[in-house]
Task: inverse folding
């Protein structure tokens, strides 16, 4: 039997309310040379019965005997892959019809790219009414962002199969609910990762979403990934520095002199450490300037400009945001 070009992994656990629509979005793809590997992780609702109603021959359905969690399920699903590329989708999300076609075209035309994802739309009930999430698109920008967060949407990814089935990388159980972040952070050290600058996946928002139910555990795993990346830079962050590092991207930090000073010192340390590596300094400066801009914009009377003179990442030119940041700061400081 001829192997398909794409293997789609669709893990399922108690998704009876959404799984049919999710499967239909994949079967309706304009690109048709794929297999849809559905692996049920011990569902106790009607998910299995719903899945078994589909008769499309491209579907390969497997079941775990008991619930083992997403990481085990994903690694198990890799054993069934036959395609040149692996695509992912969650059982409550929807792929737009051109998703696979556009991702396959990109990967076929750019053999140096190891993985691609895309922009996405967040929706509640109506997929046409969505909030855009537009992460950075270039490999250089993605690598810089990975130091603080995961700018690659796992459910929208397409990756060359040999990178996951050849033993180079797997989903690691030590990083629950951030296993994708860990995977991408490691992969980015050797492979090019890009995001297509258009919405190809609709991500459903609801209270049962993993990111909602396991927020604390996900945060702990996220910090663990960040720490590993900082250690690779030769840094040995304290717990206080790790807490600061984690909060810098969200912008949820106190507006006081001590926090501003600590942030300036920490960003400077990270930037100088990155100078000794293969990070793109311009891309890294953009990320740092954005974070600093959010933190400093409302800091009235705290010697923001004096601190900024010490920050080497402000010396990266040109950058569109820097003039705008100065205008914001002048507005707030008078």
Result:
């Amino acid at each position: 039997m001829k192997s398909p070009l794409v293997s789609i992994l669709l893990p399922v656990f108690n998704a009876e309310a959404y799984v049919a629509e999710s499967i239909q979005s994949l079967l309706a793809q304009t690109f048709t040379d794929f297999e849809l590997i559905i692996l049920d992780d011990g569902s106790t609702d009607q998910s299995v019965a719903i899945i078994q109603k589909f008769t499309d021959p491209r579907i390969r359905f497997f079941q775990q005997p008991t619930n083992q969690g997403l990481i085990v399920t994903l690694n198990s699903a890799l054993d069934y892959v036959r395609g040149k590329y692996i695509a992912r989708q969650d059982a409550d999300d929807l792929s737009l019809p051109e998703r696979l076609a556009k991702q396959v075209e990109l990967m076929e035309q750019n053999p140096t790219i190891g993985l691609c994802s895309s922009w996405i739309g967040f929706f509640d009930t109506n997929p046409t009414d969505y909030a855009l999430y537009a992460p950075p698109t270039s490999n250089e920008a993605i690598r810089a962002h990975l130091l603080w967060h995961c700018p690659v949407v796992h459910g929208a990814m397409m990756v060359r199969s040999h990178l996951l089935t050849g033993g180079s990388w797997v989903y690691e159980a030590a990083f629950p609910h951030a296993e994708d972040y860990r995977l991408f952070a490691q992969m980015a050290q050797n492979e090019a990762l890009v995001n297509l600058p258009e919405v190809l996946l609709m991500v459903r928002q609801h209270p049962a979403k993993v990111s909602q139910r396991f927020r604390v555990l996900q945060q702990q795993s996220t910090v663990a990934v960040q720490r590993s990346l900082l250690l690779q830079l030769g840094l040995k962050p304290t717990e206080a520095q790790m807490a600061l590092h984690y909060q810098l991207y969200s912008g949820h930090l106190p507006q006081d002199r001590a926090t501003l000073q600590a942030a300036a010192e920490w960003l400077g340390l990270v930037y100088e450490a990155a100078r000794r590596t293969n990070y793109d300094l311009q891309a890294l400066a953009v990320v740092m300037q954005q974070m600093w801009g959010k933190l400093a914009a409302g800091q009235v009377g705290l010697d923001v400009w004096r601190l900024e003179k010490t920050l080497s990442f402000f010396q990266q030119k040109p950058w569109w945001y820097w003039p705008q940041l100065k205008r914001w700061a002048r507005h707030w400081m008078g």
